[in-house]
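quick one before i forget lol
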Amino acid sequence: MASSISKVYTFGFDNTLKYMRAYRENRSCEFAESLHQELGNTFRLPSAKGNGVQTCDPKNVQALLATQFHDFDLGGRKKAYRPLLGQGIFASDGKTWEHSRALLRPNFVRNQIADIEVFEKHVLQLLKHIPRDGSTVDLQEVFLHMTVDLATEFLFGESINTLQNETLGTMNEFTKNFKISLAGLLIRTLLGSLRVFHGIRNDKFNNAISETRNYVRKIVKRALEQRELRLAGKAEKSENPAQNYVFLYELTNQVQDEDVIIDQLLSMLIAGRDTTAILLSMTFITLSRREDVWNKLRAEVLALEGRKPSFEDLKSMKYLTWVMNETLRLYPVVPLNIRTATKNTTLPRGGGPNGDLPIFIAKGSDIQWSTYAMHRLPEIYGEDAAEFRPERWEDLRPGLAYIPFHAGPRTCIGQQFALTEAGYTIVRLLQEFESIESRDPEPILKRVGLTLSSANGAKVALTPVKA
């Protein structure tokens, strides 16, 4: 029998102000963690819709994402994301989502991910923007440019090549409109049911959405026209028969509806840009503050003797894997997430005096979980859970208490691509530079938007290897 939750977070005036202040000061991750430390791993979270729940209990998260997957859906997020992503994989549930998943998953098989040459091409562009005279560079900005360049080449068949600009502050129209669109999606998410008013007379947002989708539509139209020519035997022979894999071209073989393709491409672009850029940024922020970790990682990299890493090399580099695991543990790309109950149901834990009994969840209730807090639970990761210690991964098997790429049926289909891109970039930078220095004396401030980022950027100085 389901029990009730004894701990309740009251959204009174004072607590609302505390939450708003924490968000404004880029401390919302820590604020959520502090609530769990005070109220336990699961507590009631009153809202306009009634009593919701906030949890960081691995058993409850496992139920939400895997064992009771069909009891919950995305709720209001679908409507928040719809202007940009339509019925894409990140803005759909049920049969629509199942169709998206089936459509996209075959496009992330090993032979596409293992094509290292496409990574090297963009890393070389990235290296041009890293000073070799000891001056400060914001690597987060550089990584965001590199990942969007690489993602557009992989997805569209043509890169927007932002790193070819001499100054990174120069944004082309697509990048500018895409950025405005993402900012609008965040506002719509935060507004909840009030999002219906967001698009009214919001010409800047509406125009950015229209221009972003129109840019992609032109590329999709060309790809569909090329497909028709190929089928008719009229397509010109490629000058490069060994050309790189292109996600869009494979997608047009499976579906020919322009809007369906655009929805999926933009969904993949958001994931392809942010996930890897955040992992890289947080890794190098940490390396700049932990000389011991830099030295151990560089020793592993030097074993390659200057050879560019292959896919097999990256898979075999144990310490590199530990470093990326630890970065994603402490700085998960999506630190807070939410689901809505589609029917009256339960969650395994949170009820009773000890919080170890099942709890009742009413249909329509919102369930938030803090991946950030769960990834720092001492009962899973030890008393040093807040510390960056890659060696813990030598024998750590946290199961679904570690979900950097989500879990269950919605596990990120591009996670191996992201890890390969990040691992390759890390190795290449450690081959080019012998030391790193932090140029930011402040603690790491975690800005929470649609994804996590560093509010202060990733300001470092790198010393090149002596010739």
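fyi The chain has a mean pLDDT of 91.
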